[in-house]
Amino acid sequence: MNMYDSARMADLLRPLGYDMSPAPQGADMVILNTCHIREKASEKVFSELGRLRPLKDDMQQKKGRKMILAVAGCVAQAEGEEIVRRAPYVDMVFGPQSFHRLPEMVAKAARGAGAVLDTDFPAESKFDFLPEEQASQGPSAFLAVQEGCDKFCTFCVVPYTRGAEYSRPAADILQEARRLIASGAKEITLLGQNVNAYHGEAKDGTWSLARLIEAVAALPGIARIRYTTSHPKDMTADLIEAHRDIPQLMPYLHLPVQSGSDAVLDAMNRKHRAEDYLKIIEDLRAARPDIALSSDFIVGFPGESEKDFEATMDIVRKTLYAQAYSFKYSPRPGTPASVQDGQVGEDIKAERLARLQQLLITQQTAFNQSKLGAVLPVLFDRQGKKPGQIMGKTAYMQSLYIEGAGQELIGKILPVRVTGAYQNGLAGELCTKQDAVMSFYSNPITQVSA
Ligand code: SAM
Ligand code: SF4
Questions:
Q1: CA 321 to ligand 1 center in whole angstroms
Q2: Which letter, b or e, does each residue of 244-280 get, where b requires 16 or more Cβ atoms within 10 Å of its Cβ?
Q3: What is the distance in A from the centroid of ligand 2 to the CA of 155?
Q4: Pocket of ligand 1 (CB under 6 A)
Q5: Does the predicted model carry a pTM greater than 0.85?
Q6: What's the chain's average pLDDT?
Q7: Distances in whole angstroms, Cα of residue 270 to Cα of each of 232, 298, 381
Q8: Which residues, other chains included, contact 192 with Cβ-Cβ below 8 Å and sequence gap of 6+?
Q9: Cα(277)–Cα(267) distance, rounded to whole angstroms?
């Protein structure tokens, strides 16, 4: 979501004459778009500001020009006044719901009358004020459809920093999707903090996420659709069926469970039990047998016992993930869990995290290795680090690289034979049409579309 917001900030600033700079040195404006989800993420902001300050001073002294320094995003929302106090050289501080006011803020900051602070939750929706012109995001694009959250999990800052749940009208989303496709997008990821809670206005009533996906899939030129991040409670039957019925909907789902213990899920206010999650996984696999799954886990939540942690290990063993994200519980100021009894020691958190990650790495590596020798359609979307290396994504969200290829592949979906499988991705080589057709008949589930 922050990547999407950053791209939209750039769209707002372009008419004022700004363009993207590859490095902060010599830039007229630097915006840190920040995350507040865990403590480490917000600590980074202050150390990054410390690194930027000499660049700002240098620009003023050597070139006589002002570098506007801004902090945006959820750290700005939660700690705006603290940022202005600790880093008075910062010119603008604004939250995720008010960045559409950037042009006014820039005008005020340029006048130099102290820091501009805007951490309101405005009555108007920022989406109504963002420019229609958008820079191309390339073959794989993000599109925000929903924002904020009303679920109030006891560990999470999102309802406080992003605000109440809001779904964009379907027509606006389809309009933006058409523009993204026209600017080269083959794949669109529909975004929201709680994306499957989407319930947007449409001409014929309120649309669910499944209905929205169906409408995006009908747009000419769209090859792949994804959505993230989902909550198990909102994994409705029509959305599960969409994985069976809509070929453009990719066989990959990030569905965070956080913990496998009912006692911990309860204390987290997740509103579902471990067995509900397992049932959803079963239904998803019945609808789309090859679906690849991903999740988020928090270890060391207050009150988590060794038995609770074992229940998390157990749900991982039962589900079999293609990839996952796991974190030590990080107490966030203002959230109920941060003042709950039974805080778990850092050493125990670290030890549990290491055990969980070991298991997840084993599963991820096994998932990648299960594709060795297969022919998979890959959307090439960027250059790799080494010359001649082009990177892409399989339908299952695995990164894949091929060697000795040219830039002309970027934006294409081509069949690739997987020749190497590692913990974090795959290596492959482009295959001939003949190869691809043979592979399709021997294993239709690989969905070769060459
Ligand atoms: N809406 C999604 C859901 O309900 O699962 C999650 C979105 S949250 C922005 C992303 C992830 O950050 C969460 O799934 C959780 O694992 C992690 N997270 C959030 N708060 C955390 C905290 N206080 N400590 C550690 N991890 C946290
Ligand atoms: Fe945070 Fe997700 Fe819970 Fe909302 S549903 S409070 S975003 S973890």
A1: 18
A2: eebebbbbbbbbbbbbbbbebbebbebebebebbeeb
A3: 8
A4: 37-38, 155-156, 158, 193-194, 229, 231, 256, 258, 296, 298, 327, 329-330, 332
A5: yes
A6: 93
A7: 9, 12, 36
A8: 1, 144, 145, 146, 147, 167, 198, 227, 228, 229
A9: 16
